[in-house]
Predict the 3D structure of the following.
Amino acid sequence: MSRLAEDTRLRLADQNVWSGLGEEVVILDLASSSYLGLDDVGAAVWGALAEPCTVGELEARLAAVYEVDPAELSRDLRSFLTDLVDRGLVVLDEEDSQALP
């Protein structure tokens, strides 16, 4: 996956089954029949992606809730999102999404 730009619009993939367990989320990837567990921060990102949003919007939401260095937040969030995209759990929202090469 190419590097995600601030204006890259993402959404949850349609083929996922997931459930909240307290502050965490468990996802069943139907394509690979594997499970992925997300902690409270990952669950917050997952929940935000229920409606398509940009990487920049996600960064702003997390920065409003968690006290973290903005550069570290951006780096960690983009790495996490790239992993979700690579797994096919999150997809680019085709309406107006962009990614950098």
Remarks:
- The helical segments are 40-48, 55-65, 70-86.
- Residues 8 and 15 are 21 Å apart (CA to CA).
